[in-house]
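agent> call fold_tool(seq_1)
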Amino acid sequence: MTDQITIKYAGGTDRGKLREQNEDSILMSEFEHSDVVLLQVADGVGGHEGGEVASNLTVAFMQASVAKAVLLANSGAGYVPDWLEKTLRQAISDSNLQLIEQQSTRLELNNMATTIVAILIHKNEIAVGHLGDSRCYQLSDQKLLQLTEDHTALQKLLNEGKINQQEYETMPMHHIISQAIGLSRSPDIEVEKLTLNKPDCYLLCSDGLTDCLSDAQIQHVLEKNDQLENSVDELITLANDNGGIDNISVVLLRSE
């Protein structure tokens, strides 16, 4: 018999110290008559209004797609074993096509796009999906593991063996993303399914956090605070103290 898992989550977003506005969006959604929870971080790109609109629209599109899947499951289709992965992948795909449709509505939105990283939870299982360089980390057994791989031009060159690790770390192209919501009608969506264990912690974040804090600094904050809200606030504060060079978004999930 599987132990009963309870979850807690919290999140926050901040403009940072250098950006004129916040183009990040976060959303934490529960769905009626279900055990389903959706957690999201989106980092908009495309300049000024475009980036902000892209991230805001995407988290709303994602929420609507999952809500539809929950309604269908509760109407008789049920939560089949691969429901989590299929639902999250479909939500990302739906959101991508809807954002592309929105790009033609106004000239200033023509180049808008956004990263997305999301966790979909049902009972004691989660699915993690992403496009772009917003990340998901897992803290388990005092080890912080990056679950997602950045979809950037440099990461692609490294994976293909065209550059080595030293070149990867020193070259200045880390923020040129190769996958995102709004860039292509057929993105390579990555989704991974995991089982929740006590007392694991999961972090969703935009690159405004990871550009300013090391993995060791992040892990220290997650381990020292009992309250997730305190961890969220401290991570954002530390990122700002270390330069705040971009918008900073954090969503935390803990299983207990």
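agent> call fold_tool(seq_2)
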Amino acid sequence: MKLISACLCGINCKYNGRNNCHPVFESMLDRNDVFPVCPEQMGGLPTPRPPCEISGGTGMDVLEGRARVVSNNNLDLTAAFIKGAQKLLQLALDIKAEEAIFQSRSPSCGCGQIYDGTFSSQLIEGDGVAAALLKQNGVKVINDADFLQGR
């Protein structure tokens, strides 16, 4: 079973209450090929919620206590992001997920590149909190764009 960012399948769980639906992912969900997840909701954050970025590093830095996840109005939401990542990891282990297809650039799901924490649309190399934790525990994580490009 593959995990997938729920927003990619048309589930309205993005920070703004919308989704990032793509027909390929929607049809994968319809065929039960993927298990939709939203680490931010799993961590207890509401939808909609303020946009967030990782300040001071990457998802791995957050997990190691060197960076934090903050909202655009400077609320520290690090604990919710870590909680969601931990719950997601437990789910991945429970269902024996070996792969995850995640929304690019997200502070939770981003894989390869994330926003730099300045809310200026600048990208840096790195992973979001959930992606980093899954990778650290042997789950292959690919972002949506790379998955679609490789089809």
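agent> summarizing second result for user.
Strands lie at 2-5, 34-37, 52-55, 68-71, 99-102, 113-115, 123-125, 140-143. Residues 78-94 form the longest helix (17 residues).
agent> awaiting next instruction.
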